[in-house]
Design a protein that fits this description.
Number of helices: 3
Number of strands: 6
Order of helices and strands: EHEEHEEEH
Largest sheet: 4 strands, antiparallel
Structural class: alpha+beta
Shape: globular
Helix content: 25-40%
Strand content: 25-35%
């Protein structure tokens, strides 16, 4: 990554950094829409975290909790891809390095404000069945807007 990074990305050193994704970014169609590819990934788990539903949003947030959050660890992200994903994630999130299973670690977008999280977990199956197609279209529109800002 270049020294031109600012804000949340300033914490990351090197393109070898991995990103733990637990919500909409677990879906290949979303990644392909945002990045034009699906980066290599492996299954991963973050103990002491929960993938929580959010009021009025189809995507989740990661909050501290008993139990574990299941997700994917994305590898091989370029500096341009990191910048795109960082811009895509809104101000509800902060970038934080988390310990993961297998003595691994990864960066994750976690909640700034746990009060935003609902008491129940995000339903990934419901998202896939009922929300994914419209969400991918919103991602396509966002990316078009984002690229027009450059």
């Amino acid at each position: 990554m270049t020294s031109q990074r600012a804000g949340r990305l300033g914490q990351i050193s090197g393109e070898a950094a991995t990103l733990f994704v637990y919500g909409s970014l677990r879906f290949p169609d979303v990644l392909r829409t945002l990045l034009d590819r699906v980066p290599p990934s492996t299954m991963a788990t973050a103990k002491g975290w929960r993938v929580a539903a959010l009021r009025d949003h189809v995507y989740p947030v990661l909050v501290p909790a008993a139990g574990q959050a299941n997700g994917m660890l994305l590898a091989g992200l370029t500096s341009t891809e990191w910048a795109t994903l960082d811009a895509f994630e809104n101000d509800l999130y902060q970038l934080r390095r988390l310990p993961l299973d297998g003595e691994r670690s990864g960066w994750a977008y976690v909640s700034h404000d746990e009060a935003e999280a609902l008491p129940h977990d995000w339903d990934i199956a419901n998202f896939a069945d009922r929300e994914l197609a419209a969400y991918v279209e919103r991602c396509r529109e966002w990316r078009s807007w984002y690229e027009s800002q450059a």
